[in-house]
Amino acid sequence: MSEALLLQLEIDQLNARYAAVLDERRFDEWPDFFLPDAKYTVQARENFDRKLPLALIALESQGMMKDRVYGITQTIYHGPYYTRHVVSPALVQGENEGRIRAQAHYAVFRTRPGDASEVYNVGRYIDEIVRTPDGLKLASRLCVYDSEMVLNSLIYPI
User: Fold this and answer.
1) Could you give phi then psi for residue 100, rounded to 5 degrees?
2) Which of 45, 64, 100, 158 is within CB 3.0–4.6 Å of 143 for a Cys-Cys bond?
3) What's the number of domains the chain is made of?
C-alpha cells in the first residue's frame, strides 16, 4: 500500500475516532485529539470566505478545550440531545514542515429523546495535523459550517 493511501487511512481513522468520542459523549477524551497549543475554531462560512475573524467558538489551547468540557459536563443546563457525526473521507492536501493539511466534510445530526432527528450542523473540517509518538494529533481544526442559522445554541463540539 502506498504512503499516500496509508496517510489517508490514518486521517480517516482519526476522524472516525473523533466522531465516536463526541457521539458517545466521552467529552473528557476530546482534548486528547489535539496538541497542547492547538486551536479549535467553529466559524460561519460567510465569515471564513470574507476572511473575517468572528467565530462561534475559538479555543486556543488544549487547556481551553478542557475548560469547555468542564462547562459542558458540569455547569451548562440544557435539554438533552444526542448527536451523530457523519464524516467524509479526508482530502489530503499536502505536508509542509511536518504539518499535514487535510479537509473533510461533516454533517452532524441531532436527536432529542422522543423526537425526530434533524440536521444540526453541516460543513467542513480544515485541519493541520502533526504526527506524534502517540499517533496523529490536530494542531488546528477549523470547522467551517454552511448553515446561516445554528439551531438553539452550540454546546457540544462539532
Assistant:
1) -95, 130
2) 158
3) 1
Quickly count: other Cβ atoms within 10 Å of residue 145's Cβ.
22
Q: Who has greater pLDDT, 98 or 103?
A: 103
The predicted model scores a pTM of 0.94
Give the cell for residue 4. 499516500
- At 11 the pLDDT is 98
Sign of CA dihedral 31, 37, 38, 40: positive
What's the Cα-to-Cα distance from 109 to each of 60, 134, 147, rounded to whole Å? 26, 30, 13
**Owning domain of residue 88:** 3-145
CATH code of residue 61: 3.10.450.50
CA atoms of 87 and 123, how far apart (whole Å): 10
d(CA 121, CA 79): 17
Q: Which backbone phi and psi does 90 adopt, to 5 degrees? A: -75, 150
What confidence score (pLDDT) does residue 1 get? Answer: 66
Q: For 61-86, b where at least 16 C-beta lie within 10 A, e where not — what string?
A: bbebbbebbeebeeeeeeeebebebe
